[in-house]
Amino acid sequence: xxxxxxxxxxxxxxxxxxxxxxxxxxxxxATGTIMVTAVAAVVVGYxxxxxxxxxxxxxAIIVVIFGGLTLYLNDKMFIKIxxxxxxxxxxxxxxxxxxxxxxxxxxxxGTALELDEKSWRSLTIRFAGFFGGMAILNELIxxxxxxxxxxxxxxxxAVALTILFCVxxxxxxxxxxxxxxxx
Length: 183
Prior knowledge:
Elements: H1 3-24, H2 27-49, H3 54-73, H4 77-99, H5 104-109, H6 117-144, H7 147-168, H8 170-176
């Protein structure tokens, strides 16, 4: 199987199964489903690639913590704030990396992109701002809209916004891409 397709299935499979479980049952069953499938995706990813991918691992840990609180306390709020915590953590880590002069975006995309340090910094700030905005948006939606609207946003809206944001960065990347010299 194509490695990018496999990675996408491992990353988005738990979210899709969360949605299916929600539609068939309720938010508590969906929460248990995403907890099990997020951990399974990390394990399968490790078995196939022989390495732990940090973003799915951190996401799975947060899913287990907030999902566990949701189920143990019988309180849906915890699963609803889980995306806020993930997006907020990503924003803080990205900004923290800049503070310590280690842009983590460069670590993630460095093999695919060649940018100067100023461009890496700008891209990092853009992604941190996006994740911070997504954290705020998640809070607004779960607090002011129905549970069904939040689930639909979480599964479809957040993914669509992430894709749109990434696509919107292509002109910036094309403008600042450093051409590799022929050797």
